[in-house]
Amino acid sequence: MPADTPQIPEHIAIIMDGNGRWAKSHGVPRARGHEEGGKTVQRVIDLCREKGVKWLTLYAFSTENWGRSKLEVTALMRMLVKYLYERLPEMMEKNVRAHAIGELYMLPPKAQEALKYVIEQTKGNTGLNAVLALSYGSRQEITAAARSLAEDVKAGRLEPADITPDMLASRLYTAGMPDPDLLIRTSGELRISNYLLWQISYAEIHVTDVLWPDFGRADFDAALADYAARHRRYGKR
Ligand code: IPE
Ligand code: IPE
Ligand code: MG
Question: Is the separation of the CB atoms in 56 and 131 below 8 Å?
């Protein structure tokens, strides 16, 4: 495809940041910011469907986010459960398939149940794949993959010299998914915060100052326009 042809990324990964700052600027509790952020999720799912994006991976809760106050963590987990059940009919109607990546066993039982249910119910859907990164940390993910390879080596099933990048990738939570083409971070921080370190090796990065609850169609379009203007060279010339 010529470089000047607008291209739609197959997979968009988003670091949904700025809910707390949004809440602060509106003089409301942080939990309200997260609630508003939930509405943005729905908006962005619709925008992805409209543009024909096939995969959307959302950083909803990091391994490090467990270190936040009990109040905030509990509110977030409660919201997750509510969101999943409330949005399921809409996901069915819109042909959205849900997935989750991360150390899901760390989540409260009710959240695990809700996730399992929604993933199971939507598994026949063939439209947008919406991936929630929950209790997710990239270093933890890569460590677990390395451990699983080490176990195979120890058991004599695998030679260290035979380990390939594809083999390691197949043991990540994202096995079978395409790598993100575009990574969007809202609220202006220029960092990755332990997100998809392996998978974003060649993703184009778009950072916007807009806070996640305020992220709308114009911001999404701007990210896509930025992406379409990039020349992805993959080290080649
Ligand atoms: C992102 O918003 C949502 C989560 C990390 C759960 P933040 O809560 O990080 O918002 P800021 O960074 O404090 O504004
Ligand atoms: C990254 O945002 C995690 C999520 C968006 C879920 P954080 O707000 O936790 O990251 P830092 O603290 O700015 O690195
Ligand atoms: Mg933040």
Answer: yes
What pLDDT score was predicted for residue 6?
A: 53
Six token digits for residue 199: 């998978």
Q: How far apart are CA 112 and CA 152, in angstroms?
A: 29
pLDDT of residue 237: 83
pTM: 0.97
Alpha carbon distance 206, 184 (integer Å):
5
Contact 54, 128 (CB under 8 A): yes
**Is 95 marked active-site?**
no
Name the residue among 11, 99, 93, 14 with its Cα closest to residue 53: 11
Instruction: Tell me the average pLDDT of the chain.
Output: 96
At residue 151's C-alpha, the angle toward residues 147 and 156, to 5°, is 150
pLDDT at residue number 1 = 47
Q: Ligand 1: which of 14, 135, 187 to mutate, most ligand atoms within 8 Å of CB?
A: 187
Confidence (pLDDT) at 14: 99
Instruction: Report the chain's terminal Cα–Cα distance, integer Å.
Output: 15
